[in-house]
Design goal:
mainly beta; four-stranded antiparallel β-sheet; 11 strands; 5% helix
Length: 127
């Protein structure tokens, strides 16, 4: 079955780090642009970062630029989000999404082109 499964969430201290994983099964990620989004209670879904399928271009939202890093390992069919310098404002459910031949512009600037979504992993940043 076609699936995206996020993992790596949990509890972190302010200033700490977590690495999230987005593992695909049932399809091959190499032709898919992949993005990370998050949603906290009472807030709109927020786009965080995307990585393109072809040229490796990346996008980062201002709220995470310089703190988060997106990467992909096509051999493992997995995309990662390394999160450093976490603050309580980063507390949210984190989702990954994949779009076939989707451009960076479509997914992370225009909020379009997503074909699959994972169910999310919860990140809590608290003392």
């Amino acid at each position: 079955q076609v699936q995206l499964v996020e993992s790596g969430g949990g509890l972190a201290q302010p200033g700490g780090s977590l690495r999230l994983s987005c593992a695909a099964s049932g399809f091959t990620l190499d032709a898919y642009t992949v993005g990370w989004f998050r949603q906290a209670p009472g807030k709109e879904r927020e786009r965080l970062s995307c990585i393109s399928f072809n040229d490796g271009n990346t996008y980062y939202a201002d709220s995470v630029k310089g703190r988060f890093t997106i990467s992909r390992d096509n051999a493992k069919n997995t995309v990662y989000l390394q999160m450093n310098s976490l603050t309580p404002a980063d507390t949210a459910q984190y989702f990954c999404t994949a779009g076939l031949f989707t451009t960076i512009q479509a997914m992370c600037l225009w909020d379009n082109g997503m074909d699959y979504w994972g169910k999310g992993t919860l990140v809590t940043v608290s003392s």
